[in-house]
Amino acid sequence: xxTQKLRDIAKALVATDKGLLAMDESHxxxxxxxxxxxxxxxxEARRAYRExxxxxxxxxxxxxxxxxxxxxxxxxxxxxxxxxxxxxxxGIIPGIKVxxxxxxxxxxxxxxxxxxxxxxxDRLKEYFHMGARFAKWRGVITMxxxxxxxxxxxxxxxxxARYAALCQEAxxxxxxxxxxxxxxxxxxxxxxxxxxxxxxxxxxxxxxxMVVLEGMILKPNMVLPGLSCRTQATLDEVADATVRxxxxxxxxxxxxxxxxxxxxxxxxxxxxLNAMNARFRSRLPWALTFSYARAIQQPALEIWQxxxxxxxxxxxxxxxxxxxxxxxxRGEYSAAMERA
Length: 340
Description:
This protein is of the alpha/beta class.
């Protein structure tokens, strides 16, 4: 294991107020978003859209790393330049999603386990040789009547830790993503309770699997009330609850925490990240940054609509959302930036 290299990459991913852009949507997810906008659901359309993203001028000012999908890491620009080379030449670190999705957890109705550990060692070696320097694995935790169960939390925590250990063995920095979903009517307090238990379980398993904490990044949910909860929290309430939960669960050795957006709007995801950094940044042992997908991409996708004539305008929207999140990392984001 190249421990120092892992540490250096992990630090680079959260350095200079930058964050991560997730462009690792699976074929069904990408096709669903294309269908909603009347964009052809083809491999070439997916390739063209991802070329739009990786060639956005100035993207490296706000983005330190991009998370790719298996199809994307094998694709190239129209001129034949591999995406990995285009990304690296722009000063951005390529990463790769390696889980194979969530499926029903046997014996636990309504709960899921993420698959993909079988054959992962060989896949990681291939991705490393293709140029990836970090990876991502998502574990899904659903809240509802009587769930999540301890069994579900433990199973996903164990899978995340085994994945992380395999990544580090292969020279890849693991992005560890335990996501407590926003769906439901649960309160802010209930989300705090579950998120705290999930993170305790994850770090216990990471310790047992001898994962080097300095060579990983955590990608958790923010502590939020459910989408259908009657009482929605203020920016400060979300910031307080999230930071308090993280301070109680995440070791200081972890270099950075990159939040997922989890279905939040771009503006709200930026505002909540901003509130945390504006209030707590100088007192935290780790960087608080972003690893957003739709919360950065959606405006660009809506502008592009699969048409070449809209590429420049779409890239401008993508750059703008990425820049808003860099400002949020500094605690300098404001709603006025959206009007500008």
